[in-house]
Automatic annotation (TrEMBL):
Lineage per the UniProt record: Bacteria, Pseudomonadati, Pseudomonadota, Alphaproteobacteria, Hyphomicrobiales
Membrane topology field: Peripheral membrane protein
Gene3D superfamilies to which the protein is assigned, alphabetical: P-loop containing nucleotide triphosphate hydrolases (3.40.50.300)
GO molecular function per UniProt: ATP binding; ATP hydrolysis activity
SUPFAM superfamilies, alphabetized: P-loop containing nucleoside triphosphate hydrolases
Name by which UniProt lists this protein: Cobalamin/Fe(3+)-siderophore ABC transporter ATP-binding protein
Main location: membrane
Superkingdom assignment: Bacteria
Family: Belongs to the ABC transporter superfamily.
Amino acid sequence: MPQASATAGTALAAEGVSVAYGRAAVVEDLDLAIPPRAFTALIGSNGSGKSTILRTLGGLLSPRAGRVLLDGRPLSRLTTKEIARGVGMLAQGPVAPEGLTVLDLVRQGRYPHLPLFGRASERDEEACAEALALTGMTELAGRPLDNLSGGQRQRAWIAMTLAQETPILLLDEPTTFLDLAHQIEVMELLSRLVAERGKTVVAVLHDLNQAARHADHIVLLKAGAVVAAGGPEDVVTAERIADVFSVAVRVVPDPVTATPMCIPLPLRHRQHASCGG
């Protein structure tokens, strides 16, 4: 069910937003409110509009109708630098120039804070050092991105986004290419940024259990529309997962966190599956 219209207390919101690629409509008349100082996960099957919505919230795509509000102000009335000071965006599959080092990349995150033709300040260098430390990339700061593993490159991009020091972080599949240990590190880092620094985090996630364990707020999407939004216990149900993903699951409490955990049912059991938790 769609969210109510944005209010002044909402960090980021879409009001009546429609987005299309050419003539193909991807999102129609979307109302979506992102709660401030919380971790929001966007989940849904491939083609549900998750990445399109995230890119629109970050100002990378312009809606053909409706508006996106940042702290109550339409993005369309803000400059690129103003948006970049408020929202840090890590898109899916980013590409950097050949030969760029990790530190060079992370320094690019300071662009919104630099004056025209200005040089990096001591504060800029401190922000970059902190971002490298938070992502475990300090020892690799001088390494070219081309020489890193996929997981290391992903952490370098996350460090660049953190160096931007924005109150809002938008991340499209931030655990892509990461092994299990680094997936856990990234998700716990994002949770800490919310809990300890009051950041507003919005991430597109494919792993439903990862979303339910770490997110305060979950938005379940289907065909560019909001099916449900709220806490994990309210959104992650067997009925909704079956509707959106066409997969029968049993939803049980996570034995560690007590948050909802989805267990896919074998094909032979699906016709007998009951809706339950």
